[in-house]
């Protein structure tokens, strides 16, 4: 689009006030906050329904590894959770219910993919894939880090003649009963699907590149009686949430500082590994790095599943894939009917394709050496631009819902601050962002994530894009924006 076309389109464009990209959990929470504050906004969603990652992922065994009473909005308790770690479909329905309750569907444009946004003429010009141009005073990226599927670069992948799909694009029309199924990848996703797949497959093979530590937290069903009491006495749900919150926020301190909780985490994983009876299998499953370095996998059914006769763990490395199946480095062909790519996400391709701030500088250019933010939610040079669950958010150590609730409140504080400064736009001072980054880098040295492993936590620059401090420290830093660290520029 030329400059002339852009200006013509811009003047005709609808102004939505605040544009939120993505109707996943974070986008919905931001929408609720803006709605409650009586501020105009639109949520721009590429798909046809809400729920983000819980809409996209539908694989067998999908559940959240944070207990449901804690993985829920603080202001929308749900007494009806079916399990301690409820299935993905139930979580998605919970968010659909929340969107309905707050009548957010009226505020969402579905089927609109945002490809480009730039700050010009004192506001954001947003280009949608369908050709529409939208104007907004504020732009909020709520696209989340786990939505771009990572397809493995394995020779011959496309030659496979059976059914093949990524775990986040499950083909529910593909028959599984009695089939020979292969799963590449043993992160949380690969591990969760193993027990249910083992119940239908004639042969099930997991291809493991790197062993994972597995922490044994059992799932359990809440009985109808328990649910009835939680419905009657909401304090019971609040209490359960409180207990899980305390436990999780304390225990997760183990990933950012050495001490009791780190030792407990390691002990739990190591003892759990010893429950594998077959010594050869046990050694194949033994990682050569510290527990917690990669995101901990939580499961009590993974090891018993691998011990079933028709379930196999292949650790020899994949040489290539051909029409009939996977060939490992020892030259053996593992014949398969179905191949699942549980190979995760490109977690470091942040946000939409192109976001351009002041002086024509794009987000990708500004982050050429790795993401640079101020407290994860704002960036110098990008006025009135905010990110939810952006780089260095605490995705490894706190419930992501709590993170979103906190960050959206902080963003709203920034937006409301501008009521006192008409005609201005807000962005962090460069020195403040640099100070934050320096402290971040220093704190990262004490984390478990840098103790020698590869994981999706670590960016191409070798730095984990996580929050290297505890949950209380997150709440302290994010309680209120310190406006001394921000500058207010003319937005006319
Ligand atoms: P993860 O945790 O990123 O796991 C991806 C898995 O796929 C992991 O075991 C990788 O092995 C494996 N992988 C990736 N590429 C390849 C290739 N080319 N060959 C063989 N194996 C490969 O993704 P998940 O979907 O399981 O979980 C993502 C998050 O979602 C999870 O942490 C929760 O927060 C929810 P590697 O370990 O890199 O050797």
Can you put this structure into words, describing what you see?
- It is a single chain.
- This protein is α/β, with parallel strands linked by helices.
- It has helices at 3-12, 25-36, 53-56, 88-101, 188-198, 224-232, 234-251, 260-273, 279-284, 302-306, 363-366, 400-417, 430-444, 471-478; strands at 14-15, 18-21, 41-45, 108-110, 114-120, 123-128, 133-136, 138-141, 163-166, 180-184, 203-207, 214-215, 297-298, 311-314, 318-322, 325-328, 333-335, 338-341, 354-356, 385-387, 424-428, 486-490.
- Helices cover 30% and strands 18% of the residues.
- Strand 6 (123-128) and strand 7 form a beta hairpin.
- The two termini are 23 Å apart.
- The site of ligand NA7 has 20 residues, from helix 5.
- Ligand NA7 binds next to helix 5.
Layout of strands and helices, then pairs:
Blueprint: H1 3-12, E1 14-15, E2 18-21, H2 25-36, E3 41-45, H3 53-56, H4 88-101, E4 108-110, E5 114-120, E6 123-128, E7 133-136, E8 138-141, E9 163-166, E10 180-184, H5 188-198, E11 203-207, E12 214-215, H6 224-232, H7 234-251, H8 260-273, H9 279-284, E13 297-298, H10 302-306, E14 311-314, E15 318-322, E16 325-328, E17 333-335, E18 338-341, E19 354-356, H11 363-366, E20 385-387, H12 400-417, E21 424-428, H13 430-444, H14 471-478, E22 486-490
Parallel strand pairs: 1-7, 2-3, 2-8, 3-4, 5-19, 8-20, 9-18, 10-11, 10-18, 11-14, 12-13
Antiparallel strand pairs: 5-6, 6-7, 15-16, 16-17, 21-22
Helix pairs in contact: 2-12, 6-7
